Amino acid sequence: MASTSDFKNGLILNHKSNLWKIIEFLHVKPGKGPAFVRTKLKNIRTGQVVEETFRSGFKVEIVKIEAKDYNYIYNDGDMLNFMEKETYDQITLNKSLIDSDILDFLVENTEVTIAFDPDLNPIEVRIPQHMNLKVVETDPGEKGNTAQGGTKPAKLESGVTINVPLFIQENDSIRVDTKQKKYIERVK
Fold first, then answer.
1. For position 180, which CATH number holds?
2. pTM score, two decimals?
3. Half-sphere exposure of residue 29: CA atoms within 13 angstroms, side-chain side
4. 36 by DSSP, 3-state: which?
5. Is the same domain home to 57 and 77?
6. How many CB atoms lie within 10 A of CB 35?
7. For the chain, which has fewer Cβ within 10 Å, the N-terminal or C-terminal residue?
8. What pairs with residue 143 in β-bridges?
9. Residue 140 DSSP code
10. Residue 31 contacts by C-beta under 8 Å, 6 or more apart in sequence?
11. 8-state DSSP, 100
């Protein structure tokens, strides 16, 4: 058992007979009354996000998860296939298990981390925060018209569309922040 002083973002807890991931938390010490911790929790199974308040020192059960590195191999309809990097074992996951923000950036051979609960059921798929992707479709940019930092939409090889600077052309490789869905820089 752990207490609220052990809270950190990404921690998985067993609370109210469900697995919850701490998205964010804040320790609050009001002028009057006891201290408490305000949290935003995400249900691992359903994706539901709730706000929960715990009194300071409240005991919670932290769930130890096991994470393994995989390569995304291919899409088979509603099923996605991954291969473990060390043993070459393959695992197939339903698209509904994977966050839509992550699906936006999955391309073949993407390195991912899959987290498993103590019963070895997959609970989460994680991708790198920064990825290099190829631009497959965009409007031609205007030369010299970048003083105001203009942007244009560009479709990436994964299928997601983000805004990029005007000088980016088709077939350019760019670095993207996958959490914020933002352009970072052009990759040479």
1. 2.40.50.140
2. 0.74
3. 2
4. strand
5. no
6. 12
7. C
8. none
9. P
10. none
11. H
Asked if 45 and 19 count as a contact pair (C-beta separation under 8 A), the reply is yes
Same domain, 121 and 140: no
Is there a contact between 2 and 62 (Cβ–Cβ < 8 Å)?
yes
CA angle in degrees (0–180, nearest 5) for 181-115-112: 45
Q: What is the per-residue pLDDT across 45-65, written as a single tens digit (0 to 9) for each?
A: 777 899 999 998 899 999 888
Contacts of residue 59, Cβ cutoff 8 Å, sequence gap at least 6: 1, 2, 3
| pLDDT, mean of residues 161-178 | 91
Domain limits for position 173: 131-187
Residue 101's H or E segment, with its range, is helix 100-103
The token pair at 22 is: 């701490």
Number of domains making up the chain: 3
Average pLDDT over residues 20-44: 91
What is the percentage of the chain residues whose pLDDT exceeds 90?
A: 46
Q: Are residues 53 and 86 in the same domain?
A: no
Token pair for residue 37? Answer: 């911790």
